[in-house]
């Protein structure tokens, strides 16, 4: 009986505490958190979203950096090519120049000569011109330090003189062509024949002498047609080359008591004393 009374007396007290705790649970929980209990979990701060202007600025900066890198790479490669081309250029003496060593604008190039100061034809050589003339039926041989190639009969024909820049070089410095016509008497018709021969031979001769320089070839042909009958006193410069002609000239001599007249006319294209075009 005593135990039941005591339990009955304590039960309301426990229920009251439970109700009190339930009523004050929120306040108690808050007090415990403030007084050293488990810390409250909080969300990390949300980073600000990039604005449209900031995005554009980033893209622009990336493009600028890429352009600068490309420019630096190109400059580096160009400098390396120039340096390698300068340092690795072979010094040829008797080797035939190739088109790869010729400036695109044409005109004379420095000769591969130890003496220096001379200019040569960029592509044609003594050998290449002589070989081309032989194919056309010319007979070539040494004429002092030059090579002379002769075509035609004993009465009418032509002679091309090919001069190298130096004795040990195959590089061509000067080319001269003379046409001639020989006949008894005054040979008045010989003047017309020699002029016609030279005008007709000039295109092929200039093509062998100046391969790849078609504008210069045409300019020389035009000048020749207009001035061959009365050549100027001095040379002119065409495409960087010195060009002059020898006007029709007649020489009459007596052979076995008979007068024989020979007409000649000539064309010379020279690079050794010319200056490259600027």
Outline the biggest β-sheet. Answer: 7 strands, antiparallel
Strand content: 15-25%
Q: Would you report the number of β strands?
A: 9
Helix amount, in percent?
40-55%
- Return the structural class: alpha+beta
Give a short overview.
With 278 residues, the chain is of the alpha+beta class.
Polypeptide structure, described:
- By secondary structure, this protein is α+β, with helices and mostly antiparallel strands.
- The chain has a domain at about 110-270.
- It is built from six helices and nine strands.
- It has helices at about 1-25, 25-35, 50-85, 125-135, 190-210, 215-225; strands spanning about 110, 120, 140-145, 145-150, 155-165, 170-185, 235-240, 240-255, 260-270.
- The strands form two sheets. A seven-stranded antiparallel sheet has the order 3-4-5-6-9-8-7.
- Helix 5 (about 190-210) runs antiparallel to helix 6.
- The longest helix has about 35 residues, at about 50-85.
- The protein is elongated, with a radius of gyration of 49 Å.
- The protein starts with a helix and ends in an 8-residue tail after the last strand.
What's the structural blueprint in terms of helices and strands?
Layout: H1 2-23, H2 25-34, H3 52-87, E1 109-110, E2 119-120, H4 126-135, E3 139-143, E4 146-152, E5 156-164, E6 172-184, H5 189-209, H6 214-227, E7 236-238, E8 241-255, E9 258-270
Antiparallel strand pairs: 1-2, 3-4, 4-5, 5-6, 6-9, 7-8, 8-9
Helix pairs in contact: 5-6
